[in-house]
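Thread title: Can someone regenerate the structure for this chain?

I was given the following input by a collaborator and told the matching C-alpha cells would be attached. They weren't. Posting the sequence so someone can regenerate them.
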Amino acid sequence: MKPRIIVCGLSRTGYKIFRLLRQQGALVVGVHHQPIAGESSGDLIVGDLQAASTLTAAGIQQAHTLVIAGPDDEVNLSVMMQARMLNPQIRIINRFFNTNLGDRLDKAVPNHLSLSVAGLAAPVFTFAALGNQVIGQIKLFKQTWPIYEEYIDKNHPWVGRKLSDLWNDRSRIMIYYMPFKGEMDLVSAVLSGQELKVGDRLILGTQPCIRSTHKSRFTKLLKVLTSLRQFKKHAQSVVVMTIVLLIIIVIATLTYTSTNTNISIIDALYFAVGMITGAGGNDKVVENAPDSIKLFTVLMMLIGAAVIGLLYALLNDFVLGSRFKQFWDAARVPRRNHYIVCGLSGIGIKVVEQLSKSGHEVVVIERDSNNKYVNTARGAGIPVIYADASFSATLKVANLDSAAAVLAVTGNDATNLEVALKAKGMTPQVPVIVHYAEPDFAHMAQEVFDFEAVLSPAELAAPAFAAAALGGKILGNGITADSLWVAFATLITPVHPFCGQQVKDVAMSAEFVPLYLETNSQTLHGWDLLETNLSGGDILYITTHGTRLYQLWRSAPPQVIAS
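Best answer:
Regenerated them for you:
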C-alpha cells in the first residue's frame, strides 16, 4: 500500500508540492486555513493548521509523512510539535526560512528533515546566471552539480552516438534516459549499445568548475587606479571643501607677504593657517599692519571658521558614517565579467555566496542599508552599492556594460521586472535572470519579455519537497514532462534486497540508474560500477522515477536510506 502523505499549508509553494505529489500518484491530503477553488473536501481539510482537530481530520494518526510547507517558521514549528504529539513515529518534512533552526531540529528530532525554499532555488539561479539551462541540481562527490536536459534534434552532435560512449565520462553523469519511441531504462540502453535518435531526451549532470580567485599585484594595483573616478564621485564634497580651504590659506599668505616685505613666507603661512583654523599663530605678522589688513584678517577668521566647520562635518560623516563604506565598496566594484545581484533577499544572499565561492566576482545593489544580509555580504568581501537598481546611474556605477549577467532577485516581482527591463534596455547583450514568485506568471514573463530566465522559487523547490516526502534523504531531483525523478543514496546492509547482487542486474530489475558507489574508501563509476557486486557497508547513489520510491520502501527497511 502506498504511504499516506499530508501537506500542511497550501500557500504558493505548498500547493505546488500538493499537486506534484498527486501527479505522481501518491496518496496525499492537503490542509489549509481556507478553501481552495477546485479542490474537493476529500482531498482538502480546512481549519487551523496548528489545531489537533484539523490534523486528526486529515488522518495524522495513519499518515506516514507530513510535509509542513507554510511560509511562517513559528507556525511550522507549532504544527510540527502538534503532529508529533498525535503521531510520534510520523516522518516530517519541514520548511524553514531560518536554516540554523532547521539544522538544530534535524539533529534533535528523529525523522525530521528541514528544507529551505531559498536554499533549494538559489543554486538554479546561480547556474542560470552562469549560462546553464538547468532543470535541477544534485549533490555528487561533495559538490552541487547543475542538471540539464539534452534534447536530441537532427542537428545535435550526438545523433547516432552510442550511449555506452557517454557512460564512462566522470565529469558528465547520465541521470535519466527517455527514448522518443518505446520504453527502455538507461542501464539496459547502455549495455545493449543503444544509439541516440532524433527525439530522444537525456538528463545529465555536469561537474561545476571552480575558478581561481588569485590576482596578481599588478591587477590589484590597476584596479585601484581605475577606481579613482569612483573616489571623485563619492567624496566630491570633501574634495571641494578641502580645495576651498587651501585657496583661502594661499590668499591669506600671499596678502601678508605682499603688504609686509619683512615677513617671510613661512611666517605668513604659519599665521594664516593658525588664524583660519583657530589654533593661533605668530601675531607679529599683523601687529603693525594697517587697519585694512586687520579687517582682512577678521574676515578670513570668519570665513575660515565656516569652511573648517563644514569640512570637519563632512569628514566626520565620510569616515564615521556610511559614506566611507559606500566609497570603499564603490572603489572595489569589479570592472568586467562580474555578476550584478540586485536585492539581498534570502535567495539573493545565497546566490552571492555561491558565485563568490565559485571564484566569480560579484557586486550587490541593495536599496536598504539596514538589510540584515548586508553585513553577511560585506563579511564575504562583496562590495555593496546602496541605491535603487532600477536607475540607469546605479547600473552604470555597477559597470553593467561589461558585466557577465544581472540577477534581479529582490522580494518584489514588480521591482524585479523593472530592474530587468532597465538592464535589458541599456545593454541587450548582458543576460538577465529574474526572480518571479508566482510560477504561472513566471512562464508568462519569460515569453513576453524574452529574458534569459524567469525563475520561480516555489516551482524550483517543490520537487525537492515532493521527492523528500516520497522517500529518504534526497540528494537531487528534477521535472521532465511532468514526471518527477529523484536521486538519493541507499546504504547496503546485509539484509538489503540488493546485497550480493551485481549493480547492473538490480538496476535493470528495479528500474533505477546507478550514479556511483562508495565502497572500501573509494568511489566507483562507469563500467566498474556496473560490474560490481554490492556488499554490506556500501553506499549506492542512484536516480529513479518518483513513483517508484514507495516500492523501495516495501522491499527495504527505511533505515537503508542514507545521506
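The CA atoms of residues 230 and 330 lie 6 Å apart.
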